[in-house]
Amino acid sequence: MQDMNHKFPYRWTLADAVFTKDKGKVFSCFACGGGSSMGYKLAGFDVIGCNEIDPKMMAAYRANHNPKHSYLEPIQTFKNREDLPPELFELDILDGSPPCSSFSMAGNREKDWGKEKKFREGQAEQVLDTLFFDFIDLAERLQPKVVVAENVKGILLGNAVEYARKVYEDFDRAGYECQHFLLDASKMGVPQRRERVFFIALRKDLAEPFMEQVDMFTQRPRIDMDFFEREIPFSEIEMEGVEREEVSESIKNRWEMADHYGRYDERARGGIKFGYFYKLMRWRVCATIMANGAYTIEPTSHFATDEEFALCGTFPMDYNYTGSKAQYIIGMSVPPVMTAQVATRIYEQWLSK
User: Fold this and answer.
1) Residue 147 backbone phi and psi in degrees, to 5
2) What is the pTM of this model?
3) pLDDT digits (tens, 9 = 90+) for 126-159
């Protein structure tokens, strides 16, 4: 039964979902397993295709979305294609989550800026911190009504602020009025504390009716992105009577060492964190699901299950992971309900007008 305090259910299936496809057309870049695509579909949009560089991610995307158009290639190649179908030049929303490890607070940040890296095995080497600008180049070419780009909180911190400023400059050059919002998924009906930045850009020829004066020097298109839905503690999504893998002795020893020296990472508001090891507290909202973290449920010595990861990430319970680890795909993806909330606000306050 859906909690009436939430606009979208976090427990759902693809088999039972009704996608109306009446709110407009979307194309997704850096699509991963399709977390954002499922969000747009929940909000009533027609997601007509995707671009992704990782063959395993594309396999999962195709298995679950059966896209009309799918391009397995780097965005640098995709943005210059001469054979793009006409409907990609008639989009309501161009969506993308440019790889963000260069700016993540859990990564190397400045040490990795400007370096070629493989995001995971099987991909071509890329300079990750320039992919955002390739995405804006694509937006300039396709000229969708709205562009939505999701990224990590770290893009707003420290020296990365200059990078964010360059994002604004490039959106302006491409013909868009841009603004950004730091959103917490736990306030949006997602059983997970996941803070992400959303850059939302409206094409300039459509922006005039929505412009508001922010201060003496700044105008921007008015849109409300404040969310106040009830938080969902882990106890509400914890599966009962299921088989769980027990924590190994080596991990137990690491926790004992952390307990002894008090070496905890306070950033894990959904539990206790030590390195990539997490203890989830039942009365708290789950900490951010990382692609490669180890999550145990306090006070037991057992790991969280794939079903619990799906619920924390608002992934459909019948999602086909096509052989990849559920936690990896969910950890790499935007929670569908988070995207559905953003997409609904864009439709109600801009596109429907």
Assistant:
1) -120, 135
2) 0.90
3) 555 689 999 999 999 999 999 999 998 888 888 8
